[in-house]
Amino acid sequence: MNRFDFTPYRRTTVGFDRLFDLLERQARAQTGDNYPPFNIERRGDDQYRITLAVAGFKPEELDITAQQNLLVVKGNKTEAEPDARQFGFERRFELADFVRVDNADLADGLLTVDLVREVPEAMKPKKVLIGAQKPLSVIDGGSSEAA
Predict the structure, then answer these.
(1) What are 104's strand-pairing partners?
(2) Is the peptide bond before 36 cis (omega within 30 degrees of 0)?
(3) Domain that holds residue 70
(4) Listed residue (53, 50, 33) closest to 42, CA to CA
(5) 113 falls in which pLDDT band (50, 70, 90)?
(6) Which residue, 12, 58, 70, 87, is the most exposed by fewest CB within 10 angstroms?
């Protein structure tokens, strides 16, 4: 079993706790089930696509739930016969901040989920000019009459 110890990094970094927790959680989850197989591709600077192989599942048997920083894809296939076996899966994907689900489609046994990262304008980097600050001035705020 491969176990990474992030303790030295935790001691020398500030504000990366969530990242280290995510890495440790992923390492523990890798020992589980690998069904259904999936692929994650980057389609542009802020566009991604997750493709899952879900052959045999119909759209009504699949459930996609997007929460803050988490995408959950569940499949539950029940045969019509009472003694038939049930097939199901649950696959979780951790999403970065400001990533939202744009579209989902099922064709030829492949479920595709398109994701888009939309950073709010207030969170985008801004250029800071050096020496562009206005000088401070004194504001005369009041009455010059003394009582």
Answers:
(1) 113
(2) yes
(3) 34-120
(4) 50
(5) very high
(6) 12
The Cβ of residue 91 has, within 10 Å, a number of other Cβ atoms equal to 19
Q: Is the pLDDT score of 33 beyond 90?
A: no
**120-142 average pLDDT score:** 78
Instruction: State the CATH number of the domain containing residue 85.
Output: 2.60.40.790
In the three-class reduction of DSSP (H, G, I as helix; E, B as strand; rest coil), residue 75 is classed as: strand
| pLDDT for position 39 | 93
Residue 6 and residue 136: Cα distance in Å, rounded? 47
Question: 87 exposed, middle or buried (CB, 10 Å; 0-12, 13-18, 19+)?
Answer: middle
Same domain, 27 and 80: no
Burial of 112 by CB count in 10 Å (0-12 exposed, 13-18 middle, 19+ buried)?
A: middle
